[in-house]
Structure formats: C-alpha cells, structure tokens
Design a protein that fits this description.
- There is one protein chain.
- The chain is an alpha+beta fold and 232 residues long.
- The protein has two domains: 93 residues, Alpha-Beta Plaits, CATH 3.30.70.100; 113 residues, Nuclear Transport Factor 2, Chain: A.
- The protein is built from seven helices and ten strands.
- The strands form two sheets. A six-stranded mixed β-sheet has the order 6-5-10-9-8-7.
- Strand 5 and strand 6 form a beta hairpin.
- The radius of gyration is 29 Å and the shape is elongated.
- This is ABM domain-containing protein.
- It comes from viral metagenome.
- InterPro entries: Dimeric_a/b-barrel (IPR011008), DUF3804 (IPR024525), NTF2-like_dom_sf (IPR032710).
Length: 232
C-alpha cells in the first residue's frame, strides 16, 4: 500500500429492513458499486452486515489517494445517490478515515535489538537479554548478565562510543534467530585506551512475542585502519 493511499470506513444504520433492502438492491444495480469499483483510484470496496445490529451496513473503501475518493464522493452528490440514501438511513452515517498500521517484520525487530546492543549505555542493550543469557568474550570465558553489568559499571571501565557498523547476516527460523554484526567501540579498560572493530554473533529467541538475546560471542578487535572483515 502506497504512502498516499486512503482508507475510509462508513457505517450506515437503516430505518428498517425494507430500507436496508432498497440500499442493497441499489448497490447491486447498474448505478451501484460497479461504478465505484471502476472509478479511477478505487482499489477495493467491500460491504459487511452488522452482527450486533442487522440494520447496519459497514462499507470499507480503499483508494489510491484521498483525491480519488473525494472525486467519487462529489460524483455521488451530483447524481443524487446521497439524496436517495438519506431517505433510507435512520441517522447520519459514521464516516472515518483510516491509516494502515505497519507492523515491523521479525528482521526489522531484530535489527532494532542489535542497534540497542551497540548503544554506548550497556543498559539499553541489556533490556533485550534473557535472564539466562551468556556472553562469550574473546578469551572464551563466559559472562552472565550480572557479570556483564558488573564489568560495565566498574570504575576501571569507561565507554566513549559504541556503534553498529553493519549487520552481516541475519536469519530467522521459527522462534529462533541468529545475527552476525560488526561493531566499532572506543573504550578505556584498566587504563588502556581501545579503539577497535569487532565481529559479534548473537542468538535470539522469541519469548512472549518479543525477541531477546539468549547467547552472544565477540571476536577479538582490530584497528579501524585495518581492512574490515568481508562477508560477501
């Protein structure tokens, strides 16, 4: 659906079943919805009968643009259709414009997690980790989340910057996913300045509808002046 697309919901409540029947007959006739569906910019028009109120009919209209829909409405005013409709309904129709909700894909959600994992403030990333998550350091030594938090809040550690360079590979398989990414960090550890680029791999699991990191591993860093690792 394009950015300019326009969706409209119109709810009509009719005086009685006879009035509703006349409306349905009109919609199915030569001057009814066949004209609307052939109108420039009309993507779809669907009608639904209310379950709670059998005298109500809801019409969903999807148009390429608001201008297309307004052009059609003007035509219906001019041809007298709305005057006819006004004789059938019990009250003014409820008409509202709608905007589509664009839900992020699993891949996009995971990319957001990885960006937070590369935040200068380690607590931003920690909110995406599972309680049992283990992080394997370049030495091969594992670090749980309590250990990670203790290390990052140690007075001998100072993070100056931390940023995502690239996502090299991302794969989702059901409720599990893995992602390999490159990170550039500048930090001081035990009095030693570090400015290095590292490759990290994280395993994620979908838990209660959200992606969390359950395992991570970091490579040894290399200087920014060195050639970046290739994942082509």
């Amino acid at each position: 659906m394009s950015e300019n697309s326009h969706t409209v919901k119109a709810v009509f409540t009719f005086k009685d079943n006879e009035s509703k029947g006349k409306f349905i007959e009109f919609c199915n006739g030569d001057r009814g919805l066949s004209i609307a569906r052939a109108w420039d910019g009309c993507e779809s028009i669907e009608c639904y009968e209310g379950l709670d109120n059998p005298l109500s009919v809801t019409i969903w209209q999807k148009w390429a643009s608001k201008e297309n829909q307004e052009s059609y409405v003007k035509f219906r005013h001019d041809d007298g259709s709305f005057d006819f409709l006004g004789e059938l309904i019990a009250s003014p129709p409820e008409i509202s414009g709608l905007r589509p909700v664009l839900f992020k894909t699993d891949e996009q959600q995971i990319e957001d997690v990885i960006r937070d994992m590369c935040n200068k403030d380690h607590r931003v990333g920690m909110k995406h980790t599972h309680d049992d998550c283990l992080f394997i350091r370049p030495t091969g030594n594992p670090l749980n989340m309590d250990g990670w938090d203790a290390m990052m809040t140690n007075e001998n550690v100072r993070v100056d910057s931390n940023e995502l360079v690239s996502i090299n590979k991302l794969k989702v398989v059901g409720d599990m996913a893995y992602v390999c990414y490159t990170n550039h960090g500048k930090f001081n550890y035990m009095g030693t300045e570090n400015d290095d680029i590292a490759v990290l791999t994280s395993v994620l699991e979908r838990v209660d509808g959200r992606w969390v990191v359950v395992h991570g591993q970091r490579s040894s860093g290399r200087k920014p002046t060195e050639e970046l690792p290739s994942f082509a």
